[in-house]
Write a structure and sequence with these properties.
Strand content: 25-35%
Order of helices and strands: HEEHEEEEEEEHEEHHH
Shape: globular
Largest sheet: 8 strands, antiparallel, barrel
Structural class: alpha+beta
Strand order of the largest sheet: 2-3-4-5-6-7-8-9
Number of helices: 6
Radius of gyration: 20 Å
Distance between the termini: 47 Å
Helix content: 10-25%
Number of strands: 11
Length: 292
């Protein structure tokens, strides 16, 4: 089992229950940088947006608390396969390409240049340093020491309506595995939340004027076409999507709800010349239709 000092980000859900204890990593001087965008950090704006793990520097594994093996351990040492998003309402999410998911709250300390991250009853202070990567993108380091650094590069900037960000906690309820089988209504709500999440990926792609649509951290059962929306074959359902359900059987029930809807309802398709916008509108109509 691998033990990583950044336990708050990757393994909190399986850690021992703590009663609001805050673990400090100690004082340190603010990181020096020539980048002018650091002025945004007075109230934490510097963290807004999504950050992808881009590098890992670690001299040795460190055990802070005993815990069970976490899905996030599989992502820590693989740059590019972990996404962390910070929002103005003090919430954050972390998502692995294998479907692992955590959500919590954050607070920025501009004097110490650190962030307090809380999931459940556990809070950790993480020292930060900011710079720019060689390609000009914003770079953020979680620094635990000279030889213990996790680097993240900004993947997506903040949008004006943060609740419309696909990685906001409100749009990722479909990833939260329930403790018992769900009835049809509960499965329907989980499915609708996933549909809305996918729609918001298209919306933010337009807002940020990205060149491509990425479902890298959002693999599911929806297929996007130019123009149109479909569903993957049953044997192509991603494990990361299934893992959000109580059981594969429940996941298949939700799959058939969407499949039946697409087969029986006539989708409203308006071709505007922008397939991203058109598919967004289709998904919004599906989300609405499934709720009626």
């Amino acid at each position: 089992m691998t033990f990583i000092k950044l336990f708050v980000l990757f393994i909190l859900v399986t850690m021992m229950e703590n009663r609001g204890i805050i673990y400090r990593t100690g004082k340190r001087s603010p990181a020096k940088s020539t980048t002018d965008w650091l002025t945004e950090g007075r109230k934490g704006e510097i963290l807004y947006g999504s950050w992808r793990l881009s590098g890992v520097k670690m001299d040795q594994p460190i055990r802070i608390f005993p815990y069970e093996e976490s899905d996030f351990e599989k992502e820590i040492e693989k740059p590019g396969e972990l996404l962390i998003s910070f929002f103005p309402d003090s919430t954050f999410t972390q998502i692995g390409k294998n479907g692992a998911y955590q959500a919590g709250r954050w607070a920025y300390d501009s004097l110490a240049v650190s962030v307090f991250l809380t999931i459940g009853r556990t809070t950790e202070e993480v020292p930060l340093a900011f710079d720019r990567a060689a390609n000009g993108m914003r770079l953020m380091n979680f620094e635990f020491g000279p030889e213990q650094i996790l680097s993240l590069i900004q993947e997506g900037t903040s949008i004006s309506r943060s609740r419309d960000d696909p990685f906001h906690p409100a749009n990722n309820q479909w990833r939260l595995k329930p403790g018992e089988p769900e009835n049809r209504e509960q499965l329907l709500q989980r499915l609708r939340n996933y549909i809305l999440h996918t729609a918001y990926i298209l919306k933010t792609t337009q807002i940020r004027q990205n060149n491509r649509v990425s479902l890298e951290f959002s693999e599911g059962i929806v297929r996007l076409y130019n123009v149109g929306v479909g569903i993957v074959k049953p044997d192509k359902i991603p494990p990361g999507w299934t893992n959000g359900f109580y059981s594969p059987d429940d996941a298949l029930k939700a799959y058939h709800i969407l499949e039946d809807y697409l087969l029986t309802e006539k989708l409203k398709i308006e071709k505007t010349g922008n397939w991203v916008r058109d598919d967004y509108n289709i998904l919004i109509d599906i989300h609405k239709g499934l709720g009626e």
